[in-house]
Amino acid sequence: MNKVLIIDDEEKLRNLLSRIIKLEGFSVTEAGSLKVAHKAIEKEEPDVILCDVKLPDGNGVDFIKEVKSKHLITEIILLTAYGNIPDGIQAMKNGAFDYIIKGDDNDKVIPLLNKAIEKVELQKRVLRLEEQSGNKYTFESIIGTSKPITDAIVLAKKAASTEATMLLLGETGTGKEVFAQAIHHASPRRLKSFLAINCSSFSKELLESEIFGHKSGAFTGALKDKKGLIEETNGGTLFLDEIGEMPSDLQSKLLRVLETSEFIKVGDTKLTKVDVRFIAATNRKIEQDVNEGKFREDLFYRLNTFTIELPPLRERKSDIPLLANYYLSFFSIKSNKKIKGFTKDVLELLQQSNWKGNIRELKNVIERAVILEESENITKESLPYELQFPFTGTENIYDLAVIERQHIRKVLQHTNGNKSETARLLNIGLTTLYRKLEEYNISK
């Protein structure tokens, strides 16, 4: 049963609203002041709050902002009097679901409540889905039953209970950080911090400061002491993504931490001791980089205590329907759409793709398809152009006719089949477009 809290110092109005709402099957709690309301919120955890503007001990508009800062899912409907429409507008800015005129809009209360409850239920479902499959980062949250992925999971589970430094190899989007999180949460360090940094996202100076920290005055802008990620992660796990992009002198500094569990902050003179487990990852051919002198050999062997290679999606195509259906469920709930599945030709296209961006690319494609789709199943038309019309491998990609056919199809998709607009964008006559559609056997 959904819970509603009514906050109003006018007892008669409060009782009237309570009776109306209870008749619709809601559980109702009443409060005549903000002090009583705060206690009711902590005890009852209401889904929706109906709140008056002027209360004996405060203002309902300010109260909305306070509640939303602690209870993001709870929706609040403001009760405003005549002449207080500006209060309603400010309430919306503060995060209110809507506002109604006291006494005059009683017939709007139930429809508005139902809409607010729908939003609350949607948010709850999204949170449950994230908790079950995404944010807990357990090995059970890793989707896939193919041999390549299950073999990687078995290896990761064996290494998780140890203190071994680990190196995760794999293309972009194969789930290296998800694996690192799962390893951490299955390790003795699970109750301590897990922090991650992408080594390719910072300049050398910033990266050094982010990882190792600095002392006040170490460089221009260093106005106070700063702990680096290594110190912040003490007792836990630090994930160094794209380790292959780390500058050579920082590699040397990291090697010292791995060997001695101590380091010197930027601008400092004394050693800082830490107890951190390192998991590194890269999408580069790291051994080739070592051979070419681009990556320190001694650091490579120190990181290479336990290496796991994560398979690209094209090598585990039997997992694509599982992943696609998971993301379909997730984004359908998030978008409040009731999409049941995929048409057969869509699943075939998904499994035929090489997925250069791997799981991350698949996730983005499904999210886009959910946004575009209007029917109960994801159809071919909701997929990106490149998936709808992949090169077969037998076509000459340098043939002007092939390029023209592909371009016309792409513009048609962009205009959703509007031929007049397509002709305008192509800067050709409509008759010319129809002739080319017939010539290239383009049905859309």
Coarse structural class? alpha/beta
The CATH topology of the largest domain turns out to be Rossmann fold
Basic shape: globular
What is the level-2 CATH architecture name of the largest domain? 3-Layer(aba) Sandwich
Count of individual beta strands: 18
Identify the CATH class of the largest domain: Alpha Beta
Measured distance between first and last alpha carbons: 49 Å
Query: Going by CATH, what is the homologous superfamily of the largest domain?
Result: P-loop containing nucleotide triphosphate hydrolases
How do the strands of the widest beta sheet line up side by side?
2-1-3-6-7
Domains, number: 3
Radius of gyration: 29 Å
Fraction of residues in helix: 40-55%
Rounded average pLDDT:
88
How many helices? The count is 19
Q: What low-confidence regions span 5 or more consecutive residues with pLDDT below 50?
A: none
What is the percentage of strand-forming residues? 5-15%
Largest sheet: 5 strands, parallel
Give the helices and strands, then pairings.
Layout: E1 3-7, H1 11-23, E2 27-31, H2 34-44, E3 48-52, E4 54-55, E5 58-59, H3 60-70, E6 75-80, H4 85-93, E7 98-101, H5 106-133, H6 147-160, E8 166-169, H7 176-185, E9 194-198, H8 204-212, E10 213-214, E11 226-227, H9 229-232, E12 237-241, H10 248-260, E13 262-263, E14 272-273, E15 277-282, H11 286-291, H12 297-303, E16 306-309, H13 320-334, E17 341-342, H14 344-352, H15 358-372, E18 377-378, H16 385-388, H17 400-414, H18 419-426, H19 430-439
Parallel strand pairs: 1-2, 1-3, 3-6, 6-7, 8-15, 8-16, 9-12, 12-15, 17-18
Antiparallel strand pairs: 4-5, 10-11, 13-14
Helix pairs in contact: 3-4, 6-7, 13-15, 17-18, 18-19
